[in-house]
Amino acid sequence: MNKKIIVYFTYTNHTKMIAEKIKEKLNCDILEIRTMIPYSEDYDKVVNDEQNREASNYLPEIQNINIDLNQYDEIILGTPVWWYRPAPAIRTFLTQNDLSGKTIKPYATNAGWIGRTFQEIKLLCPRSKVEEGMNIVFKSYSDQLVTNHQDIENWIKTL
Ligand SMILES: Cc1cc2nc3c(=O)[nH]c(=O)nc-3n(C[C@H](O)[C@H](O)[C@H](O)COP(=O)(O)O)c2cc1C
User: Fold this and answer.
1) Backbone phi, psi, residue 125, to 5°
2) Domains of the chain listed by start with CATH number
């Protein structure tokens, strides 16, 4: 059987909520990516700062992951969409880890503007088999899901 791990980053917990739902169903390992320097609690400040940084392709330092990824065949990868792209911490994770030969099953939580998030994940995992991403939409400035619960449950069944 394929050994799976959920790897995710979250700022306002939407991506975490989905990660935990997946964990509940699959009973697999889970890893939260955290930046060395935590983001401000001021949401609008983070949105503005990140818009200004967006073009620079910066990669924030992330905390040591303390887990041997070699033991996994599949990574279920969760990211919020930040300025039409995967969150920078996820870009750091994908840049720093060799995921050759693994299957990556991405999902992205967002407010309806997913942009090039899934294309960029593919580019960052050139030697992995990256499956079609699951787009999970929450209402802007809210924890309310727009994507149908059943669609999420159905997708989780495919994992
Ligand atoms: C810095 C920043 C940039 C964002 N950019 C986008 C965006 O480009 N498109 C979009 O649909 N939502 C955008 N959002 C909204 C988040 O993607 C959405 O709320 C997501 O579900 C948050 O996930 P989290 O709670 O796991 O952090 C942005 C949020 C932040 C904080």
Assistant:
1) -125, 65
2) 4-157 (3.40.50.360)
